[in-house]
Amino acid sequence: MKRIVILSGAGLSAESGLGTFRDMDGLWTRYNLEDVATPGGFARDPALVHDFYNARRANMAAARPNAAHEALTRLSKHGDVMLVTQNIDDLLERAGATDVIHMHGELARALCHACGARWDAPPVMSADAPCPVCNAAATRPDVVWFGEMPYHMDRIEAALARADLFVSIGTSGTVYPASGFVDLARMAGAGTLELNLAASGGRFDAVREGAATDVVVEWVAEVLDDA
Question: What's the CA gap between 50 and 120, in Å, rounded?
């Protein structure tokens, strides 16, 4: 099987009931992103930020993996496949995937911005909860906010440099640095494929349009049949 790097975005989890930035009536529309998804917003009003992510954590807990998560899990157990996701949910793991690279962090994890400690987040976090390591009231969700560097970039870029195929699933392709992955893959000689509800306009060799539970499941079946 080819060496495959897969990047997934919000479109992968949309059919599980988790909203995207572009949903007209979703959770994101009830908040100003500057207030809940930036370090400055957290410094101004940590209680508001925790309320927002507590709601997202509850939504995640109520959601279930869909057929696209399950298909990617099957594929990841065959050959050299790296699963990279912009999503902060745990639906790929709950579908059975292991070693998922969460470049934007995870809702299920907490971070102390005083000492850098990380631990499993409780269902409800609060601004005055102490860090279990340094005891500072400085805990925040372990998610990457606007203006912060995504996680695991060295590992992702190394995988793209040796990939035979890069696949982008359910992402708008507008947020840097993930928006540049297709170009890194192309420069390394890899084929590129986009699976999305609608084409993002990126520089892909091929695009398949449709819901993730359709196009991802069909593509994975083809790859496994050829393996």
Answer: 15
Domains of the chain: 1-18+65-104+150-227 (3.40.50.1220), 19-62+106-143 (3.30.1600.10)
What is the C-alpha to C-alpha distance for residues 84 and 178, in angstroms, rounded to an integer?
10
| Helix, coil or strand: residue 144 | coil
Name the E strands within the chain.
4-8, 81-85, 101-102, 105-112, 118-120, 139-143, 165-169, 191-196, 206-209
pLDDT band for 90, please (50, 70, 90 cuts).
very high
**Catalytic center residues:** 104
pLDDT per residue as tens digits for the range 19-58 = 655 544 555 567 788 999 999 999 999 999 999 999 999 9
